[in-house]
Amino acid sequence: MNTAKAQLHLVHGASYTQREAAIAASLARLRNNSAGNNADKNVVILEGLPDGQDILHPTELLHVSRIAPGCFCCIGNLSLRVTLNRALRQKPANIYLGIASDAHLDKLLLTLQDPTYNQLLEINSNTSL
């Protein structure tokens, strides 16, 4: 049983397509990294709606969720929590969270560091585009 914490990678700013492309590039680096396990499950949660063709496509090892745009902090985190809880049930090695704005990033980080998630997630990177 995998008891390791999922590595959380925050990607924020720029356009939806740029966030998705940055996440795709990071996933490609993970796959090419000799230390990375190609059998690891990864989850991508993207806020917003695509403004072009999707770059990331779900596979057996990649789960992609898209959440309608809206500040997670201001809408009470419900859609994020539900989506994140579903993702965590899959026991992923990495979770990429692509959000549109860092306006309330501090409040989002507090949510992600709450005891519920602190046992399951380790914030690995925070990338602003």
Write the H/E string, N to C. Answer: EHEEHEHHE
Number of helices: 4
For the sheet with most strands, the description reads: 5 strands, parallel
Shape: globular
* Fraction of residues in helix: 25-40%
> How much β-strand is present in the residues?
25-35%
End-to-end Cα distance, whole Å, is: 36 Å
- Show unreliable segments: none
Strand tally: 5
Mean of residue pLDDT values:
88
Q: What is the number of independent domains?
A: 1
Structural class from helices and strands? alpha/beta
Strand order of the largest sheet: 3-2-4-1-5
Assembly state (oligomeric): single chain
Protein name: GTPase
Structural summary, described in words:
This protein is of the alpha/beta class. It has one domain. 31% of the residues lie in helices and 26% in strands. It contains four helices and five strands, in the order βαββαβααβ. A five-stranded parallel β-sheet has the order 3-2-4-1-5, with helices on both faces. It starts with 5 loop residues before the first strand and ends with a strand. This is GTPase.
